[in-house]
UniProtKB/TrEMBL annotation, chain A:
PANTHER family: SKP1 (PTHR11165). Probable essential component of SCF (SKP1-CUL1-F-box protein) E3 ubiquitin-protein ligase complexes, which mediate the ubiquitination and subsequent proteasomal degradation of target proteins. Regulates cell proliferation during embryonic and larval development. It comes from Caenorhabditis nigoni. The keyword Heme does not apply. Residues 165-177 have a biased composition (Basic and acidic residues). Residues 1-25, 160-188 are annotated as: Disordered. This is Skp1-related protein. Keywords: Ubl conjugation pathway. It comes from the Eukaryota.
From TrEMBL, chain B:
Residues 31-70 form the F-box domain. It comes from the Eukaryota. Residues 228-286 form the Sdz-33 F-box domain. This is F-box domain-containing protein. Pfam families: F-box (PF00646), FBA_2 (PF07735).
Length: 188, 368
């Protein structure tokens, strides 16, 4: 991907677009920001592409960073896997400045990553991409029986929920008893 | 029967195979661990039948589904004849959002699902049409349980129920005040009326909570229309004994009449009576042209009518009935105006005549 820089961020300035002579106002050069995920690989993304993310857009809107400052201060998203962040950046670049179509054919194809992608996209508040991803999740159970849905989405039965709740209470009780005993020991 | 079963099983297997190839690649996800907004986003993009399937899986799932607040325009119940059904209807969609079919036929296959406190024998579901099929020996005995379950999960604006005139459907009569109907139930009584001793003998329930009444039976001569017409919506499907005198003297808000003996002259007199300041509550009168009203040209005889003036009223009249919402095109209608300024519009359709009263000329809306 052209806008992604691996490891070091050699921030090349945005290539100025050659404006036609007839154009009245000169075009403002596009500003870029830098993000990285858990793997610390830095991705260079234009402000236009980042507008899809309400979270990042809110963060950068009042920063007024220069290119050097942006490069020196990449946004860290330690809770997002590097490959997932790459997918998100790709999608944002592909849809930069464009209205999102009702059916998106540019959705990430790696289905095994779908759930991590949903979590990341929800965190980054990318509304349209979240809707597309949720549709993919919804399609997983199309035509399935209730028990098959239970298996696919790991939905515990009421009995399992009750057992888990009992277990949690038991554990909490033990921990509380341990703390009381420790406190009593300290007092002695 | 076995062949049909085998064929259906084969179909289901083939259908599943198509999707199992896709779902095998997914990393497992605990749906309940997702935040409520993501959970809702997913459920709102699922077939509604799968949402209902999900509700059967656990208490926690039901709580999360309830938080989404799925809304439907109308809950329809048919408890007349051998086939019973319940429909979740949305007027904005052409197909019903969800249908539950019930019959007494015996099938040697099926499985039990727990709905509320009871286990119900299910025979299958049809995904493209969002239909569940149940086998039940006594639809009525399951009804309260089903309504309790549905109302614990979903919200309905109103209700429409078809029941039998005779002693059957007694349980549904007892459920008229069920919160699922939101105090907006229209009850249709179908069958043959042998004797009439008052509204209580027909409904045998808490009819104070009813919003409307559809009489789908032939009236006797001693039928007390006054008692019935106090409901906001009334519809008489067989009204041969409904006379000109009834039309002129009784008060009603929204009335539809079919299979009657009223003439164009009778309706003309009614409109004159309205112009004179009577029928103050009137919002809508609909009269069919089948088996009556043949001399429709007499309706406007002697009335000062004007064509539609867009500065005076809307072109369409929104009829918000319990089951559907229709915008009646009134641009070709003929208007009359009362001394107090209220406009009434006569609309001549192929098979019926409408007289619509514009309470607010630029919010074209009445309840049918």
């Amino acid at each position: 991907m052209s806008s992604t820089e691996q490891g070091t961020s050699s921030a090349a300035p945005a290539e100025p677009t050659t404006a036609p002579e007839s154009a009245a106002a000169p075009e403002v050069p596009e500003s870029f920001y830098y993000v990285h995920g858990k793997d610390k690989v830095v991705h260079k993304v234009s402000a236009g592409a980042l507008q899809h993310s309400a979270l990042i857009h809110g963060m950068i809107s009042n920063l007024g960073y220069t290119e050097e400052q942006a490069k020196a201060n990449p946004f860290p998203f330690e809770n997002i896997d590097g490959d997932i962040l790459q997918m998100v950046v790709d999608w944002c670049n592909q849809h930069k400045g464009k209205p999102t179509p009702p059916e998106d054919t540019n959705l990430p194809k790696q289905k095994e990553k779908l759930f991590d992608l949903v979590l990341a996209v929800n965190y980054l508040e990318i509304k349209e991409l979240l809707t597309y991803c949720c549709k993919q999740v919804a399609m997983m159970v199309k035509g399935k029986s209730p028990e098959e849905i239970r298996e696919i989405w790991m939905i515990p039965t009421d009995a399992e929920d009750e057992a888990a709740e009992k277990e949690a209470k038991k554990r909490a009780g033990k921990e509380a008893a341990g703390e009381t005993a420790a406190a009593a020991g300290d007092a002695k | 029967m076995k062949f049909v079963h085998n064929f259906l099983t084969w179909l289901e297997t083939a259908f599943d195979r198509e999707y199992s190839n896709e779902s095998c690649c997914y990393k497992p996800l605990k749906l309940l661990d997702l935040s409520q907004n993501v959970f809702e986003n997913i459920l709102r993009q699922m077939d509604f039948i799968s949402v209902f399937d999900l509700s059967l899986l656990s208490e926690e799932m039901r709580l999360k589904i309830k938080q989404i607040n799925f809304q439907f325009d109308c809950l329809e119940i048919n408890n007349f004849g051998s086939k019973n059904w319940i429909k979740f209807r949305n007027s904005s969609e052409e197909v019903p959002a969800m249908t539950f079919n019930f019959d007494t036929n015996y099938y040697d296959w099926g499985w039990k699902i727990k709905i509320g406190e009871k286990k119900v024998e299910m025979r299958g579901r049809r995904y493209p049409t969002n239909e569940y099929c149940f086998q039940t020996k006594d639809f009525e005995s399951d009804l309260k349980n089903l309504l309790d379950y549905f109302s614990s999960l979903f919200h309905f604006q109103s209700g429409f129920a078809v029941i039998e005139l005779d002693s059957k459907s007694q349980k549904l009569r007892e459920l008229i005040a069920h919160p699922i109907f939101n105090n907006r139930l229209v009850l249709q009584l179908s069958g043959v009326l042998y004797s009439y001793t008052g509204l209580d003998s027909l409904i045998q329930g808490n009819f104070e909570n009813l919003e409307g009444f559809v009489a789908d039976f032939e009236f006797g001569n001693h039928f007390d229309y006054k008692e019935i017409l106090k409901f906001k919506h009334c519809s008489f499907n067989y009204a041969k004994s409904f006379t000109r005198r009834d039309l002129l003297t009784l008060e009603f808000q929204n009335l539809k009449i079919r299979n009657h003996r009223l003439t164009g002259g009778d309706v003309n007199s009614f409109i004159k009576s309205w112009l004179a300041g009577n029928h103050k509550n009137l919002e809508h009168l609909g009269i069919s042209k089948n088996f009556g009203l043949e001399d429709i040209e007499d309706v406007s005889h002697g009335l000062e009518t004007v064509k539609w003036d867009e500065t005076k009223r809307d072109g369409h009249f929104l009829i918000d009935s319990i089951r559907t919402t229709n915008a009646i095109d009134c641009r070709q209608g003929l208007d009359v105006q009362r001394a107090d300024g209220t406009i009434g519009t006569m609309v001549f359709k192929n098979d019926h005549f409408l007289f619509l009263v514009w309470k607010n000329p630029f919010v074209g809306r009445i309840d049918e």
